[in-house]
């Protein structure tokens, strides 16, 4: 409805304003410049497969900057940082929708959750970082958890494909995938609906 749309747009707009501040600053360290250096130095895409910190950020930033260059824009530090700033800004709205529709929080609780992400210092900081794979990880793990819970509540081919798709995006967006493992186990345990039986039946049903 209009109220939800207004909240989503407001959270995104405020998040983008906070993340756009100082976005054009010169790269403060070699770590900030490393992704841009790799994209400019390496031709093609095979080098991306060997990346330890996830392939998705390399593909995303490479295509984004290439498109801007195709439009004739001069690529400065600002434009290198914009792709991650956009995802970081969308995260606040996504958090609101996740809490509202998936967790079934009150509207006030969902707004509060989205607002916390909007102004959270570490998230704002990472959203200004060219190599902000943590921002991509938070974004796609939210979608992965949402789709996995939907699948366990109503296991269909469509919900299974969606859960697999977003889980896969998370895995290639972030180098450290181990934290996601206990989340899958918890989802199996908490949201799989077994008819009768104890915890063993619940887990077995969830895995199936």
Write a concise keyword list for the protein shown above.
about 210 residues; mainly alpha; about 75% helix
Write a concise synopsis of the structure shown:
With 208 residues, this protein is mostly helical.
The proportion of residues forming helix, as a percent range, comes to: over 70%
- Secondary structure tally: strands: 0
* Overall pLDDT level: 86
Count every helix, treating DSSP H or I runs of 4 or more residues as helices: 11
Based on CA atoms alone, the radius of gyration comes out at 19 Å
User: Poorly predicted ranges (pLDDT <50, ≥5 residues)?
Assistant: none
Using the alpha-carbon principal axes, give the shape. Answer: globular
Largest sheet: none
What is the distance, rounded to the nearest whole angstrom, between the alpha carbons of the first and last residues?
37 Å
Proportion of residues in β-strands: under 5%
In terms of structural class, how would the helical and strand content be classed? mainly alpha
**Run of helices and strands:** HHHHHHHHHHH
């Amino acid at each position: 409805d209009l109220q939800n749309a207004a909240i989503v747009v407001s959270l995104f707009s405020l998040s983008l304003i906070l993340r756009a501040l100082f976005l054009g600053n010169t790269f403060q360290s070699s770590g900030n410049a490393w992704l841009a250096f790799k994209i400019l130095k390496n031709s093609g895409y095979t080098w991306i497969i060997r990346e330890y910190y996830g392939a998705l950020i390399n593909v995303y930033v490479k295509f984004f900057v290439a498109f801007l260059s195709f439009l004739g824009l001069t690529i400065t530090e600002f434009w290198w940082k914009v792709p991650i700033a956009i995802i970081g800004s969308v995260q606040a709205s996504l958090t609101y929708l996740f809490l509202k529709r998936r967790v079934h929080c009150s509207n006030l609780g969902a707004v509060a959750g989205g607002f916390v992400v909007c102004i959270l210092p570490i998230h704002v900081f990472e959203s200004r970082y060219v190599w902000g794979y943590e921002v991509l990880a938070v974004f796609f793990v939210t979608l992965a958890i949402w789709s996995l819970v939907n699948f366990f509540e109503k296991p269909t081919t469509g919900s299974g494909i969606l859960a697999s798709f977003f889980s896969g995006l998370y895995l290639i967006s972030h180098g450290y995938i181990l934290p996601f493992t206990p989340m899958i186990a918890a989802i199996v345990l908490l949201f799989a609906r077994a008819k009768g039986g104890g915890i063993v039946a619940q887990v077995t049903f969830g895995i199936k």
